[in-house]
Each structure stands twice: as structure tokens, then as C-alpha cells.
Amino acid sequence: MIHDQGLVDQLSALAVERFDGEVFRATGVSASPLAFSVNGGRWAPPARDGADVPVLYTSLEWNGALAEVVSYLTLLTPLPSRPLKVSRLGVSAAKTLWLARAGLERLGVDMAQYGVRDYVRTQSIGAALAFLGLDGLIAPSARWPCDNLMIYQSNHLLNERLEVIEEENVDWQAWARVNGLLTVGETLVPGDDRAISAVCGSATRDRCQFELLASTEAEAARLAKEDGVVETAAGFLKRLAGKRPPENLKGFLAAASDARPKPGDEIPDNLRSKLIRGAWGGRAKRNPPASFAAVPPPGRR
Predict the structure, then answer these.
(1) From residue 274, how far is each of 2, 243, 266, 284, 291 by CA, in Å?
(2) N or C: which end of the chain has fewer CB within 10 A?
(3) Which of 240, 247, 221 is nearest to 232 (CA)?
(4) Which of 134, 152, 151 has the alpha carbon at shortest distance from 21?
(5) Mean pLDDT across the stretch 67-80?
(6) What's 293's DSSP letter?
(7) CA-to-CA dists, residue 197 to 170, 193, 200, 205, angstroms
(8) What is the pLDDT of residue 238?
(9) Boundaries of every domain in the chain
(10) Element (H, E) at 168
(11) Which of 149, 132, 54, 164 is nearest to 93 (CA)?
């Protein structure tokens, strides 16, 4: 991975210190709180294009650890029902850089957009720190008024401390409601403008939705599996479509009304047979799903 030399020079001039203390991490109940991630995130690029920066994300506060994960979960539909696990960890890091908001601004981070999931600059900073041999970074959380600690595995020596002190399961939905992150009886889904603005600030809708999909896809699949969902709706539809091109849908879309369907509206007769035949390969021996079953139109029941 090629690093920005100016950024490397800036970072190498900053003082580092030793960290020895306790931090918190929120995970799924069955996940290891000590497992490093290669999927990237705010402070590390994903493992591609020559990047190899495994990182462990933790928070200096219990609420901060929970807020980081809940910020993703509130965007999923349906909301995962299982609790989260919050682990208290004992950690030490030999070379830790502590960056306050002012320090981040001097490094080119737009703090007015810090809550937006646009990680280009912060990922460059994290990759450069790992390149310089640092094993720890403390920086402000974007989800809670506290600091987070990121540990870079490639530089974290085996004789440094990294252990679980205690764990507890938490009803994350109840916690989110108490803290105003989830409205009672309401789910903010990924396409909802309020969910978009809550996470993306002033970023454009198209750009934000693209980044949300990229950042939550793996986590959503993992949480769905933990909740007992064998196959997601997207996976089912992809398997059902097989190799049929998307253009096959144009006929159905052209005939569809621009208005929202009313309760009781049915698939038109001239499309129902095509839909069943197209989706199931014309093989009469296979029964179509119940939602495709022939239902008499209004007036013929």
C-alpha cells in the first residue's frame, strides 16, 4: 500500500505514549471480543489493494462501545432481536497516539462531517500509523461523547496485555430507546430519509446509501444468521432469478402503476401467468409460491 508521504511525516512528528487500562467492546453474543477485523472501518482500510491492517475497535466507555454497534443495527430491517454482548477488556499498548479533535483537523479530517461514514482520510491515517509501527490509536467516537481505542494487530506484541475481564449481555433495543437512538414502535429502515440523515449528515443520498450498503452487508448477514435466518430475502431472490437478465423485468415494470397499490390489488391476469412461468421456468410440476397463486380479481370472487 502506498502512503501519503506528507501524512506520514506529520504523524511521525507526533508524540506517542504507553496505554495500560480497561476498555469496552460490543459484539454479538457468540463472537469473540478479542477477534481483530480485516474488514476495514473508520481507522483501517479493508484487506484489498495491498492493504493489510487488522484492527480491534474498542471504546474507553461502556456506552461508547454499545453506541458504535447500535448505530448499524438501527439501520437493519428487521431489527435483530438477540442481545449484544459488552465485554470489559484489559489492554496495554506500547506506542499509542492520542488524537483530539483539533489534532484530527490538522491532519485533514473534516470534523463537521465526522459522523458521516466517509472513511477515506481516516483510513489513510490508520494505515500510516500501522506503517509507522504504532500499535494503538485513541480518537474521538463519532457515536458517543467519549474516546475510542483502536489496536493494530501487526504491531501489538504478544507480551502486551489483551484479555477479557468480564462480559454481560445487553438488551440493545431497550438501551437504544432510553438513549433516543430508536423510537418506540418504530424502525428506521435503510431507505428512510431520517435514517440516512442520522448517519450521513449532509452527504448526498445516493452516495450515503451506497456506503451504508457496503458497510452493513457483512454485519447484516452475520446478525441474520445468529437470529436463525437461513437465507436473506436478497439471497432468495438472486437464487430464484438465476442467470435471467434484469431486462426480463422491464415488461412487468412498464405495466405497473405509478401509484402505491391499495389493499386488495391483485396481479393482472395477463401478467400472472407470465410471472409464474418466467420465475419457475415453465415447469408445471413445481408449485409457485403462495404469493404467486391465482387469486380471482375483484368482482369475480
Answers:
(1) 53, 17, 14, 13, 14
(2) C
(3) 221
(4) 151
(5) 90
(6) S
(7) 27, 6, 5, 8
(8) 72
(9) 5-226, 233-292
(10) strand 162-170
(11) 149
pTM equals 0.64
CA distance 237 to 255: 21
Three-state SS at 206: helix
Report the candidate in 67, 17, 42, 23 with the shortest Cα–Cα distance to residue 166: 23
Nearest to 154 by CA among 124, 181, 176, 133: 133
C-alpha R_g of the chain? 24
Do residues 184 and 41 make contact, with C-beta atoms less than 8 angstroms apart? no
Quick: pLDDT tens for 2-48: 888 999 999 999 999 999 999 999 999 999 999 999 888 999 998 87
- How far lies 3's CA from each of 47, 127, 129, 204, in Å? 15, 8, 10, 28
Helix, strand or coil for residue 85? strand
How many residues does the structure list for the chain?
301
As given in the structure block, the three cell numbers for residue 61 are 466507555
**226: its cell numbers:** 445468529
Grid cell in block for residue 218:
457483512
| DSSP conformation class of 287 | P
User: Which candidate, 270, 274, 268, places its Cα nearest to that of 288?
Assistant: 274
Closest CA to 92 of 158, 19, 165: 19
CB atoms near residue 101 (< 10 Å): 11
